[in-house]
From TrEMBL:
Its EC number is 2.7.7.87. Coiled coil: none annotated. Its main location: cytoplasm. It catalyses: L-threonine + hydrogencarbonate + ATP = L-threonylcarbamoyladenylate + diphosphate + H2O. The keyword Aminoacyl-tRNA synthetase does not apply. GO terms for cellular component: cytoplasm. One of its GO terms (biological process) is tRNA processing. It is an enzyme of class 2 (transferase). It is found in: Cytoplasm. This is L-threonylcarbamoyladenylate synthase. GO terms for molecular function: ATP binding; double-stranded RNA binding; L-threonylcarbamoyladenylate synthase; tRNA binding. Keywords: ATP-binding, Cytoplasm, Nucleotide-binding, Nucleotidyltransferase, Transferase, tRNA processing. Transmembrane segments: none annotated.
Amino acid sequence: MMKDEIKKACEVMQKGGVILYPTDTVWGIGCDATNEEAVKRVYEIKQRSDSKAMLVLVDSPVKVDFYVQDVPSVAWDLIELTTKPLTVIYDGARNLAPNLLAEDGSVGIRVTNEEFSKQLCFRFRKAIVSTSANISGQPAPAVFSEISEEIKQAVDYVVDYRREETGHPKPSSIIKLGRTGEVKVIRE
C-alpha cells in the first residue's frame, strides 16, 4: 500500500500538483520544491504571504549539498547526532524555487528518517516542500483527523497512509546556521 501511495504522490508532484502527506513530525502540505508555480499554490492554500519561507524535506544528508552553496561543517555533525527531527536553516540556498526562500536567501532543510516521507523524497529525487497542514495562523494539526476540510479539498492528492494515527508528534527543532558555523536556536 505504501508503495502505491508514494507512486501516486510522486506522479501528482511531477505534474506540479500539491499533496497532503504524513512526515516525521506533523502532517504536511507538499509539492516539488523546485517548481515555483506549485510553491505559489501552497502559499495560496495556506493563505500565507510568500515572504514567510517554508522548509523542505530530503531523504539523505548528501542532498543538502545540492540545495546549499556552502554547508558549514558543523551541520554534518548536527544531522548525524540528532535524536529527533531537526530543521536546519542554511544561508545560500540554491536549486530551489525562488519564492520558497526567505528574503535573505536562506532555506530550512530537514533530513527525514520517517519511513513514508523518506521513501517519498527518495522516489521523487528532489526536495519536497513540507509545511504544516493548516491555514496560516491556525494551530498546526498533529494528526490527520485535525486537518480542516478546507485544506483537504484544496490539495490535489491526500495520502491514505497513516491517517488513523492518534499520537501527537511534535514539530521539529529549528536551528539557523551561519556561514561560519555559528548556531542560533529558533525552536527547541
